[in-house]
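Quick one: structure tokens for this chain, please?
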Amino acid sequence: MSPGPRKPERWQGSETALRAVQVAFDVEEAVMEAIRVAAFHANVSTSTQIRSVLDLPVAARPKRPRLTVTLDAADYALLASRYGLAPDDRLGIKEAATRELIAFVQQQAPHTRSKSVRTVRNSKTVP
């Protein structure tokens, strides 16, 4: 019996992550809020805050710090309409949404522009 197809070299380090299991905690709203607030003040994800509270190892820096949202076809259609783009232009929609998020942050505190806020280059202009 053969061991199966060989994994690409770049996937070799992902073995542990692939075996990890996401755990959801059913707790009172006050506990969730306290964890989120503590994570916010520590500038870490809620997952990192939970690992810290449980005294589990925490990476010194996030591997890929980013914001995420799940979008379905209807969401892409709404955003495409808002930005004057085709619904299948997912990269254009992502770039326009990125600019909108950056504008949101700049409106929240116009006098404090974070060094981590970067603009999207080579993309279509948001109306």
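Residues 45 and 66 are 10 Å apart (CA to CA).
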